[in-house]
Amino acid sequence: MSISNAIVHQFFRNSTTNALQLRADELGIDEPLHDLLGQVKNAFYNRSNKQYGRFSDEAGHVKALAGQWASRSLGFVTLTEQWMKHLQTELIARELDIEGYWLFAQETLEQGDQLWFFHFKHKPGLYLSHDLDLGDAAMIDFSRLGFGGVIDLAALSRKDAQYLTLSFGFGDRSLQVALLDVVNFVDTLDTSVDTDRFMAIVKAYSETLPTEKCANYRRKAIEYCTEQDKLGETVVCNDISVALASAQDPARSESLVTFMQQTEPEAKAEFIPDRKSLKKYLRYTGKSKEVSISFSNDILGKNVNFNPENESLTITNLPAALLKQLKEELGQL
Question: Does the record bear Hydrolase in its keywords (predicted)?
Fold first, then answer.
């Protein structure tokens, strides 16, 4: 990780108080800052509610600021100060309450620069000094990180269709609409559609493999996509095809990517996996007021059988704990 610029500001607003504290200079680039951004990024990548898109085509304050910073016609401190003042103006106008700190950081990667912004709060804590004295401390609460996002500055300069990724966190529900408006965000990518389409291709391909390899191939494909999601990476179809080669029939020359090119040539060769969509391929889940059922996809047709005519499930090899409860209820133990 290579951080070139970073700064933190504080904003607190409720019905009686409106306080914006702006730091005058950038943070020093040191190990604690790298650790801070590293933890923020991990929390961001581990979220399942990310949204992908771009700035609205209409003129917007944050859009203008990001463009000016990308072209280096605006200083980093000024960028973040103007951003925070715009946030303050919008939330006051909407009479919304907020508290906490805002981190802005630019990270330089091989593929281009990224501008991170994140809202976080602190929690009370204790510390021991070098003299072993006990004192109070205010600590960043990484378990309650709020709204945040990242702008791919190279993609922004190219005016790509997708260069802005956002995510909401703990306690953001009442602020969601306002924060999206502040950033001028437009959702341009439906990751669930892309994930469903790819998994349909995987299913079709796996059904051409020997029966004993079919379910295992699909499971490994889901695991691969899930891991890419956790890393904040896209799924490149050629890469997953190579990675799963050992799970297919060794005598089969046609790979997943070849099958995809022949049957679905217009499908995306690279996509962002959707975590919620992937979960439904791992487990069947459903509940009503009286019943909650969840089981692995692998046992459908084995320990669990579905009859579509009368819409019923037959379950064998029940979990030991459930079996014990049922027998106790019938007085058989």
Answer: no
